[in-house]
Write a structure and sequence with these properties.
Length: 157
C-alpha cells in the first residue's frame, strides 16, 4: 500500500498489509462490564440479571463474517431486507470453544437489514450448555475465530 497526494507528488513509504476473507469480532454493548451485544427474544440485553435459558432465542452482533449470498449488497448502502444477505456457515460459543456444551445453535447469520457493515447472528440456546454469568463469547467462521483473550461475556442459566 502506498498513499499518494494528488498534485503534490508526495508518496508514503510502502506498507505491506494482509487482507483476510474473515476476521470475526463480537460487538460489545457495555464497554465497562465488557458485556457482549447479545439480546434475548424480547430485545433485552443479556446480563447476569437477564440470563439466557434453554431453548431461548437470541440475537447478537458482530463484524468480519465475510462475503454474503442472496440479497445484493452495495458498498456504503444499508443491507437489504429482501432477500437477505446471508453469510456462510459459522459457529457461536458461549464458553470455552473446546467444550462441546459451549456451542450454541446458529439459526441464521448475515448482514443486519437496514445497517451498513453490521452482521447479525440469530441463535438458540441448546439443552447442553454452560451455566455462568461470565461466559466468553466467540464467533468462528471460515476457520478463523474471534479473540478469546479479553472476549466479551454473556450470561447463561
Amino acid at each position: 500500500l502506498v498513499i499518494r497526494s494528488l498534485g503534490q507528488g508526495y508518496a508514503s513509504v510502502p506498507y505491506t498489509l494482509k487482507i483476510s476473507k474473515f476476521l470475526p469480532a463480537v460487538f460489545v454493548a457495555d464497554a465497562q462490564t465488557h458485556q457482549a451485544a447479545v439480546y434475548d427474544s424480547k430485545g433485552r440485553l443479556v446480563t447476569k440479571n437477564n440470563r439466557l435459558t434453554r431453548d431461548q432465542h437470541f440475537t447478537m452482533y458482530a463484524s468480519g463474517l465475510g462475503a454474503t449470498t442472496g440479497g445484493k449488497v452495495v458498498a456504503g448502502q444499508p443491507a437489504p431486507s429482501s432477500p437477505l444477505a446471508v453469510t456462510g456457515p459459522g459457529r457461536v460459543f458461549f464458553g470455552t470453544p473446546s467444550w462441546t456444551q459451549a456451542e450454541m445453535i446458529v439459526n441464521w447469520s448475515g448482514l443486519a437489514p437496514g445497517f451498513i457493515g453490521l452482521y447479525q447472528i440469530n441463535g438458540t440456546v441448546p439443552g447442553n450448555r454452560i451455566h455462568s454469568d461470565t461466559n466468553p463469547v466467540t464467533v468462528s467462521v471460515g476457520g478463523v475465530s474471534s479473540s478469546l483473550p479479553n472476549a466479551p461475556i454473556t450470561a447463561v442459566d
